[in-house]
């Protein structure tokens, strides 16, 4: 009897393994724009900037209207995306800069620590080839944050996000090695005199445009891994300023906008045609995405590849020549990058997977980027470590009745005075300037009737205030550095 039982268990185990192998694992491509707000794509209402390939992606897949980043700036958003932790639990909660802007002072940002569980590690363990091409911002080569130490078999691009302020850098990084580009060194954050000649603007250009280089590496990665499942994380640096794009791309827009030269007085590189260049950067990225989609079809990978597109945070503040209102980049939402109002954290999200995701669909599911890890775990039968997310796979593939929903989404952000936000159903609570006032009051908005957060109804809802306070106390874990702790300070000076 015992032998029969053991035989049964053996057969069951083998059958399970065989069944998993028969289920062909899909390729996964996650494209991550940089500082792209809710209203910057044609599929989200943009009228002036052309994004035909991403708009087609939306037509052939599903577009989400209530998707949130996990943090309103670069490094923490990327940390939470990779680890599935919200901002009350994540190791990195702000932009913690190391080193300087110059090549010889390149120091990156606070690195992910050794032992961090990432999406890349999870999928590598599940049999995937893993690649990251773009902007990392979570540690340099000589740190525990090295992408190769965080689960990526291959990486190419910017390790230091300060370097990514220049689209014509002297170098990018490839698996720990310096890849020299055909660009002269120049300091990107400087001004030039008003009414400067064209040659002064040409100083901020080179021959090797980083987006082009990264696109070429992307196509090579896909070709090299066409016969095995791959996960490709593409954190592009568009449309983060500086305003820089190839001349031929800018020419497509010159004459369409009423614009004046930008001379660098609000940071980042001067630009003769700032509005045309901003639009050109987005359209140029869109063209590179079109090249990816064409290659997938050429290699017959199209129907077995899940392609997703989102952004790390909302539209940037008015700097570097940006005029957000001119393009309606936030889609009318309140706030920008660094804000926990909707304009800082509600971002585009599009997914396409022919034969699996019904085309032309729109979803109002409320979810966040820390949900990606459990989603990919469910999709690939991978083992995931504890996280704060909920798989949104059912919503992706049209099984809406099986889709679990968050009781609430939690956000905290130590910069810009210290902020907290909670989304619970249609209700949104926001606290600001908590570093100077730990007793800061809640603002409360009903997003069902007031998605622009114009009318604070906190005085009507003491019950919600009480609930939000309970959530805040429950979800916040003390940060490991002084600069990020503003809710339950443990570094207070003692007499």
User: Number of helical runs?
Assistant: 13
Query: Largest sheet, if any?
Result: 11 strands, mixed
SS-based class:
alpha/beta
CATH topology of the largest domain: Alkaline Phosphatase, subunit A
Low-confidence stretches: 4-22
Query: Which sequence of SSEs, written as H and E, runs from N to C?
Result: HEHEHEEHEEEEHHEHHEHHEEEHHEEEEH
Tell me the name of the CATH class of the largest domain. Answer: Alpha Beta
**How many domains?**
2
Strand percentage lies at 15-25%
How many extended strands?
17
What is the average of the pLDDT values?
94
Q: If classified by CATH, what would the architecture of the largest domain be?
A: 3-Layer(aba) Sandwich
Shape, please?
globular
Q: What is the CA-CA span between the terminal residues?
A: 74 Å
- What is the C-alpha radius of gyration, as a whole number of Å? 23 Å
CATH superfamily of the largest domain: Alkaline Phosphatase, subunit A
Q: Percentage of helical residues?
A: 25-40%
Break the fold down into its secondary structure elements and pairings:
Blueprint: H1 2-22, E1 27-33, H2 52-60, E2 62-68, H3 74-83, E3 97-99, E4 106-109, H4 119-125, E5 129-135, E6 154-158, E7 171-174, E8 177-180, H5 198-202, H6 210-224, E9 230-234, H7 247-251, H8 274-298, E10 305-311, H9 324-327, H10 342-345, E11 346-352, E12 361-363, E13 367-368, H11 372-380, H12 393-396, E14 409-413, E15 419-424, E16 427-431, E17 443-446, H13 462-475
Describe this structure in words.
The chain is of the alpha/beta class. It has two domains: 23-402, Alkaline Phosphatase, subunit A; 409-484, 2-Layer Sandwich (Arylsulfatase, C-terminal domain). The chain is 27% helix and 17% strand. It is built from 13 helices and 17 strands. The strands form three sheets. Strands 1, 2, 5, 6, 7, 8, 9, 10, 11, 12 and 13 form an eleven-stranded mixed beta sheet that branches. Strands 14-15-16-17 form a four-stranded antiparallel beta sheet, covered by helices on one side. The chain has a two-stranded antiparallel ribbon with strand order 3-4. Strand 15 (419-424) and strand 16 form a beta hairpin. Helix 6 packs parallel to helix 8. The protein is globular and about 60 Å long. The N and C termini lie far apart (74 Å). The model is unreliable at 4-22 (pLDDT under 50).
């Amino acid at each position: 009897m015992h032998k029969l039982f053991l035989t049964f268990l053996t057969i069951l185990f083998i059958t399970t393994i065989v069944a998993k192998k028969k289920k062909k694992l899909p390729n996964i491509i996650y494209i991550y724009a940089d500082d792209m707000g809710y209203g910057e794509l044609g599929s989200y209402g943009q009228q002036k900037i052309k994004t035909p390939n991403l708009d087609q992606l939306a037509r052939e897949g599903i577009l989400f209207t209530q998707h949130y980043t996990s943090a309103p700036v670069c490094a923490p958003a990327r940390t939470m995306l990779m680890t599935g932790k919200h901002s009350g639990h994540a190791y990195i909660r702000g932009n913690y800069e190391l080193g300087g802007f110059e090549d010889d002072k390149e120091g990156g940002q606070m690195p992910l620590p050794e032992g961090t569980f990432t999406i890349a590690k999870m999928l590598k363990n599940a049999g995937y080839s893993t690649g990251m091409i773009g902007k990392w911002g979570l540690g340099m080569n000589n740190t525990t944050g090295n992408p190769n130490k965080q689960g990526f078999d291959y990486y190419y691009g910017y390790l230091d996000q300060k370097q990514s302020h220049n689209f014509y850098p002297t170098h990018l990084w490839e698996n720990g090695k310096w890849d020299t580009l055909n660009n002269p060194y120049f300091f990107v954050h400087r001004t030039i005199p008003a009414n400067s000649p064209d040659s002064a603007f040409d100083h901020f250009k080179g021959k090797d445009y980083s987006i082009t280089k990264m696109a070429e590496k992307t196509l090579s990665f896909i070709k090299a891994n066409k016969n095995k499942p791959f996960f490709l994380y593409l954190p592009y640096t568009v449309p983060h300023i500086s305003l820089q794009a190839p001349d031929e791309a800018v020419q497509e827009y010159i004459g369409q906008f009423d614009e004046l030269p930008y001379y660098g007085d609000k940071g980042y590189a001067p630009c003769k045609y700032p509005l045309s260049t901003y639009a050109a950067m987005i359209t140029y990225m869109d063209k590179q995405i079109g090249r990816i989609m064409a290659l997938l079809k050429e290699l017959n990978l199209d129907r077995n590849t899940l392609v997703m597109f989102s952004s790390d945070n909302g539209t940037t503040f008015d700097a570097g020549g940006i005029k957000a209102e001119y393009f309606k980049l936030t889609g009318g939402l309140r706030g920008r990058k660094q804000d926990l109002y909707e304009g800082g954290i509600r971002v585009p999200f599009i997914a396409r997977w022919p034969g699996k995701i019904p085309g032309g669909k729109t979803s109002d599911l409320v979810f966040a980027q820390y949900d990606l890890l459990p989603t990919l775990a469910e999709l690939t039968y991978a083992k995931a470590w504890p996280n704060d997310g909920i798989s949104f796979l059912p919503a992706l593939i049209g099984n809406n009745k099986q889709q679990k929903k968050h009781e609430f989404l939690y956000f905290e952000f130590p910069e810009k005075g210290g902020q907290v936000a909670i989304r619970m159903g249609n209700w949104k609570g926001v606290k600001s300037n908590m570093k100077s006032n730990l007793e800061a009051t809640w603002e409360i908005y009903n997003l069902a009737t007031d998605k622009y957060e114009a009318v604070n109804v906190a005085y009507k809802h003491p019950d919600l205030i009480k609930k939000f306070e309970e959530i805040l106390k429950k979800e916040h874990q003390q940060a490991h550095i002084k600069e990020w702790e503003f809710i339950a300070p443990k570094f207070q000076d003692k007499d």
